[in-house]
Amino acid sequence: APLPAAVGDLCAKDNLEVCEYELKLDYNYFTAEQVLKELLPKGTEVPGSFETVGHVAHLNLREELLGFKHLIGEVLLDKNLPRIQTIVNKVGSIENTFRVPEFEVLAGKSSMVTEVKQHGATFKLDFAKVYWNSRLEQEHKRLCTKHLRGSKTVVCDMMAGIGPFAVPAGIA
User: What integer pLDDT is reported at residue 142 of this predicted model?
Assistant: First the structure.
């Protein structure tokens, strides 16, 4: 598009030369969200976030996106390598004693054995078999800092799982 007259006048006043330049932007320039917005049907809400557990990205795709789940998985994987190596989608609802959802691998490695670092501790877990919620990290830290720092309090965590609260509490 041509320059607006006012901009052209200012350039001429300051002896600035205006030249044309062709810029080609390919796939590598765009974010996963921008790529998916172009690839998915118009009006489809693009998944913009996911939970990360070590090298695993966990999605909760809506019904209308399930037909595109492998495409979504491949784009997210490609745009987040090497940090993310596996893209999974939760299948169905959680209906078991240990609150471990069932997952379908959409892209990347099939192994969901991963490591998560929190509060000076490294947890090695199989995300397909162990409940883990990274969004609770700040709550674990808050409780440890507020109630346990320098105290001789005994903690009994009845729902410890692999210890995302108990281990940092022990370190505190």
Answer: 77
